[in-house]
Write a structure and sequence with these properties.
With about 600 residues, the protein is α/β, with parallel strands linked by helices. The protein folds into four domains: about 100 residues, no CATH class; about 230 residues, no CATH class; about 230 residues, P-loop containing nucleotide triphosphate hydrolases (Rossmann fold); about 45 residues, no CATH class. The chain contains 24 helices and twelve strands. Helix 1 packs across helix 2, helix 9 packs across helix 17 and helix 22 packs across helix 24. Pfam families: MutS_V (PF00488).
Length: about 600
């Protein structure tokens, strides 16, 4: 296969990869999703990641039909990467894409949930030991020694389920022997500390080499000590050798020349002979030790290969398991392709972007599109007995596939869209979702459009070009569109939005359209309904209190009187207060005063 056949690989990229890796190795790196190899070859990491996403999950990436859908997808991956136990696992997470079949989604879910359950059963000390082993593995760039040590740590922790089963049958004793051997060898050499005798010989050789480098100084020292005749000099030098090195007396005497003509010749000849003898002894001992270590590795070859192949996969699934645990994610269920009525249904779903903020108290949301099995018990507040437009009740939703979501500013409408988008993206990537329960439809195109407050014809045209074609194509489309009216004048926006709702109904799509123009969209098709989010007042700190759970079949209101009430209460001087009181009269002074009274009453 030609490298240029891969998305994102042009002539310059191909030249870089071929020069650094060769064609075959570059193809292997792309096919295996190896970000690090491509980055080490000179590609920017971001570009390498984009190439691999397309190479590994091209069909899945194509389901992300808008730039906002792709942004939401990348935001989720960034959250998951924070729980990666190795950088290699982080790279694998970064190239995850929506999967093409529900069988693939379920297979990955099985692995991640099994890893989650196994990890959750471990004591904290065992978890820490495993994480420390993976940290060492990461620092050593995933070499064989680090892989074996990580496998030993996993076995010691007792994890054997799901993805961990790959190491369950490995022999701990064989791995420990292999770890000792691998730790003792480096680039064909035996490391210090691997063998006491080899260490002693190397130390002695080093000492002899130091003495040889300072032979003249040693001669002068001996002479300065009053050593005169040849016999006394010989004895003093012998004593010096034994005191400063570990060389044996027999080896010293064998090395001393018998035909030296002077002290310099005598000392130099002795040290040269000792260096030669010790070098030979070091080489012989190292060869013996290396042969023994290599034999140990040969005997443990199967265990080592098993550890190397398993540890990276375990790190990947363990990283995703830790992410699922951190956000209390659960297994979604999938509505099969052959079921007549698609549905998207979430119970107590949480927005992950909000959940990352320590100071946020996230209200779980229950919502549904299409046929559903929701009951009164799925809501934090009881359902109303009818579908009346009541601020106090909860009407169960119908089976409408399209909803128009209305309500207060800062009422969580955009957050609800993001939450639904996150749940669907995670599920289609084969990952658990942040909800008590979720039912996910097949999704061929995910159209997520955030509010873009740019009021010009170019933005309107580009928006329509991004959201209409995927909706018009064959396949199941999920529409999540936020305040479409922000990009054109209200009258035209209402007409266009009504057309989009009708198109979504005609195409049997699922969708949520957030808008403040619900009254202008009437009459809606019977397949669509209006839901509302309500602000309920101000708390004692004059902060807006919102019930983020939508009320089905009910138009939400923006409740400007609450905002005006807060502005009146917080006015910094008399003139400013008078101005806001004029607005209070416009929205209803009695309502403003009642709001402020309720806030004070609740203090």
């Amino acid at each position: 296969m030609r490298l240029e056949a891969y998305w994102g690989v042009g002539p310059k990229t191909r030249e870089t990869l071929v020069e650094e890796l060769g064609t075959d190795r570059a193809i292997d790196a792309i096919e295996s999703g190896d970000v690090r190899t491509l980055a080490d070859a000179g590609l920017p990491r971001g570009r390498a990641t984009r190439i691999l996403r397309r190479a590994i999950g091209g069909d899945g990436i194509d389901t992300l039909a808008t730039s906002d859908a792709r942004s939401a997808y990348k935001e989720l991956l960034d959250l998951a990467v924070e729980y990666a136990v190795t950088e290699r696992a982080a790279d694998r997470i970064r190239v995850l894409t929506p999967l093409s079949t529900q069988a693939e989604m379920n297979e990955r879910l099985e692995d991640v949930l099994a890893a989650r359950d196994a990890w959750e059963r471990l004591e904290e000390d065992d978890q820490n030991r495993v994480l420390e082993a993976y940290e060492r593995y990461d620092n050593r760039d995933g070499n064989a020694y680090a892989a074996v040590k990580a496998a030993i740590a996993l076995l010691d922790a007792g994890v054997e389920d799901g993805p961990f089963a790959a190491i369950a049958d490995l022999e701990t004793e064989a791995l420990e022997d292999a770890a000792t051997a691998l730790g003792a060898l480096e680039d064909g050499r035996v490391r210090e500390g691997a063998d006491e005798e080899l260490d002693r010989l190397r130390t002695t050789l080093g000492a002899i080499e130091d003495m040889d480098a300072n032979a003249l100084a040693i001669i002068e020292d001996l002479r300065s000590e009053g050593v005169g005749d040849v016999s006394a000099f010989r004895d003093a030098f012998e004593d010096r050798l034994q005191s400063e090195t570990q060389v044996t007396i027999d080896r010293v005497r064998d090395a001393m020349p018998t035909d030296a003509t002077d002290a310099t010749d005598f000392v130099g000849g002795t040290l040269r002979r000792l260096r030669s003898d010790l070098t030979e002894a070091v080489d012989e001992r190292e060869a013996t030790v290396r042969t023994k270590l290599e034999a140990t590795l040969e005997d443990a070859e199967a265990a080592v290969e098993g550890a190397i192949s398993a540890v990276d996969d375990i790190a990947f699934h363990l990283s995703l398991a830790r992410f699922a645990l951190a956000y209390d994610c659960t297994r979604p269920t999938f509505r099969s392709d052959d079921e007549a009525a698609p549905t998207l249904s979430v119970v107590s779903a949480r927005n992950l972007s909000l959940a990352t903020r320590a100071d946020e108290n996230v209200q779980p949301i229950t919502y549904t599109l299409g046929e559903h099995s929701l009951s009164d018990g799925d809501f934090s507040q009881p359902a109303s007995e009818d579908n009346t437009d009541s601020n106090d009740g909860r009407a169960l939703p119908g089976d409408e596939r399209i909803t128009v979501l209305t309500g207060a500013n800062s009422g969580g409408k955009t957050t609800l869209l993001e939450t639904l988008c996150q749940v669907v993206l995670l599920a289609t990537m084969g990952l658990p979702v942040p909800a008590e329960r979720a039912e996910i439809p097949p999704v061929d195109s995910l159209v997520f459009h955030r509010r873009h407050a740019s009021f010009n014809a170019g933005v309107l045209e580009s928006t329509l070009r991004s959201i209409v074609p995927p909706l018009s194509a064959n396949g199941q489309t999920l529409m999540l569109v936020d305040e479409f009216e922000a990009i054109t004048e209200p009258g035209s926006a209402a007409n266009l939005l009504h057309g989009l709702v009708q198109l979504a109904v005609n195409q049997e799509a699922l969708g949520v359209f957030v808008t403040h123009l619900a009254d202008d969209l009437e009459p809606l098709p019977p397949e669509a309904r209006v839901d509302g989010i309500f602000a309920e007042g101000l708390n004692p700190d004059l902060e807006l209190e919102v019930d983020y759970q939508p009320r089905f079949g009910t138009v939400g209101r923006s409740t400007p009187e609450f905002i005006v009430s807060r502005l009146v209460a917080n006015a910094s001087d008399r003139a400013e207060r008078a101005g806001f009181e004029t607005l209070a009269e416009a929205v209803g002074n009695d309502v403003v005063q009642r709001t402020l009274a309720d806030a004070r009453w609740n203090e």
